[in-house]
Design goal:
The structure is a homodimer. By secondary structure, chain A is α+β, with helices and mostly antiparallel strands. Chain A has 2 domains: about 80 residues, Glutaredoxin (3-Layer(aba) Sandwich); about 150 residues, Glutathione S-transferase Yfyf (Class Pi), Chain A, domain 2, CATH 1.20.1050.10. Chain A is built from 10 helices and 4 strands; from the N terminus they run E-H-E-H-E-E-H-H-H-H-H-H-H-H. In chain A, a hairpin with a 2-residue loop joins strand 3 and strand 4. In chain A, helix 1 runs parallel beside helix 3, helix 4 packs parallel to helix 6 and helix 6 crosses helix 7.
Chain lengths: ~240, ~240
């Protein structure tokens, strides 16, 4: 089956978590809105269509045959067993999904560091508030997420190479992306955090070295981080004095 | 099986979405942290325990036999078929879960109207920023969520009584809670929004009239809305002039 991924074309954003899963497993997919000629028009027509049985609230969404699935974690829940990257028992799937949803919460908090007031306004219009929110995020929330996932790696009864059992899963790919994005957005904070979280750093490197993923990351299909995405590098958000 | 729900004892919060599912189906459960003597101590010990196989990042979490499941939507995904309130086919479950995750995003946005800067600070310390975030939420986001769910009700091929098919599901109970909470937090805005969203109002009333749920809502098990929860009534957040 050829999967169709629909997501805003200029950013990694939430779509990237789905791309990493598709790329790492070598799945056949098309990134619909990235087609320079008709991509965005196709996605917008799709979103406004009255004919879709299960209309998404927002991208990303995935077309898989007749199914249309939205919400990043839900897409990954669907893809997991199909791409062979999650155990099939119900407790394992629930646990993987629980971690994926925790990452989804983390993603939203990253977004709100530069958009604490309104997604519909520019960063420049909420810069003062962003400084406050980013200070809190850097001081408390980012370390909390790092501590949690480091702990999950540490206590994996099958070893600390991956979050779940002995094999890589979508949650590992997503955690790689969180580390990669955090390095882009908050390099100074990460320089402080990483030494205390060696298992996460090792997981990041282990994921990045996977042959298909390494090829993807070098390819033009991997968009660069930029200041329209979720992870944005605004040095002023990191450089303020902490209270 | 007697389910054990773990959630902060003084508020409806995210735990309420799980409570509504358990109450409506007449499930046997105990709201662990509400035990005045040892509840909170039990929950905190649980969260700090090194022995749990799948430790939660935060409450709510549900203990079901040996399973421990966190993340509200994940708990409801698990409970759905067991409480008999969701269709069992994979496309139906994915669709229900997609809507549940959209409600989870909505809940986070409600929370951030009064805590746009930091969950660790008091509302009083971020009041000015809360005015900005709430203005955006009231003007754009709340209507967007209402329009979306009204549309989903309207286009349900099995009729507009419920979101999915012909029968009530957890998503309907959660949508009831969103309407109930929005009425508490944003009464003026709701007075404007409700006439344009008749199917949602009817769904709210239909859910509230369900015998087990009606009994629950009258019981002391239903906590009152208050200014420690997610839905808070701060009149100043609604009364400002819109730009």
């Amino acid at each position: 089956m050829r999967y169709e991924l629909y997501y805003w074309p200029g950013i990694q954003g939430r779509g990237e978590f789905v791309r990493l899963a598709l790329e790492d497993s070598g799945a056949d997919y098309v990134d619909v809105a990235r087609d320079a000629k008709r991509g965005m028009a196709t996605m917008m027509r799709f979103m406004e269509s009255r004919a879709i049985e299960h209309p998404p609230f927002a991208p990303p969404f995935l077309k898989a045959g007749k199914l249309v699935i939205a919400q990043t974690a839900n897409i990954l829940f669907y893809l997991g067993p199909r791409l062979g990257c999650v155990a099939k028992s119900e407790p394992s799937r629930l646990w993987a999904h629980q971690l994926q949803l925790t990452i989804a919460d983390w993603v939203s908090e990253v977004h709100d560091t530069h958009h604490p007031i309104a997604g519909s306004l520019y960063y420049e219009d909420q810069k003062a508030e962003a400084r406050g929110r980013a200070a809190e995020f850097i001081a408390n929330r980012l370390p909390k997420f790092f501590d949690y996932f480091e702990w999950i790696l540490k206590r994996n009864p099958k070893g600390s190479e991956y979050l779940l059992g002995k094999k890589v899963s979508n949650v590992d790919l997503s955690l790689f992306q969180m580390i990669e994005g955090s390095r882009y957005a908050f390099p100074k904070t990460m320089a402080r955090l990483e030494p205390g979280h060696p298992r996460m750093v090792a997981l990041h490197d282990r994921v990045m070295a996977r042959p298909r993923l390494a090829a993807y990351l070098r390819s033009p299909r991997r968009l660069a981080f930029n200041e329209q995405g979720i992870f944005r590098h605004y040095p002023e958000l990191e450089e303020q004095e902490q209270d």
